[in-house]
Amino acid sequence: MARRAGAVVLVAVLGWAATSGVPAAAAPRPFGDVEVLAKVPTPPGFPEGIAVQDDRVYVAGPATFGTTGKPPSRVVAFSTLTGAQVASYGTQGENLLAEHANSSIAFDGNGRLYVLNTQLGMYRLTPSNGKQEPYGDPFPDLAPARWSRHRARRPRCPHRRFPTTSPSMLPATPT
């Protein structure tokens, strides 16, 4: 399953690369033509974030549940010319005894890659040297909301003729 998901994502990227002027193959290809560029290795598998910079495609993952006790999340780089894996960056600082995953990724104008991580928040990765640094705080774990019908009751609008809490008292629609 992980291999199929990886191939699907990279097919979409190659299609984008072929239509955006990024050299995806030696011979010119027709508009909208796609093919499998590479398979995402497992782990991480289950790619989610994807970004293209120069002649490389960067894929972040895993986008799955059940990562407790598994290796760190990764960002993997592939050559758009050959499809070969050219780099792999393990996420530093994750608690591997809890769920962990990389998600969305994007480049800034200076070639730095921003990675959204479920535990770390957002971190910045410099692909040229592999340096990772925190960029944004993680989302807090919130307790489940306790909903009570009595506390959540909306105030009745004074201009309404019928109460909003009882649909049976609403007027019938004209026929």
How would you describe this structure to a colleague?
By secondary structure, this protein is an alpha+beta fold. It has a single domain, classed as Lipocalin (Beta Barrel), CATH 2.40.128. It is 11% helix and 26% strand. The protein is built from 1 helix and 8 strands; from the N terminus they run αββββββββ. The strands form 2 sheets. The protein has a 4-stranded antiparallel beta sheet with strand order 1-2-3-4, with helices on one face. A 4-stranded antiparallel beta sheet has the order 5-6-7-8, with no helix packed on it. Strand 6 and strand 7 form a beta hairpin. It is globular, with a radius of gyration of 24 Å. The N and C termini lie far apart (53 Å). Mean pLDDT is 78; it is low at 1-25.
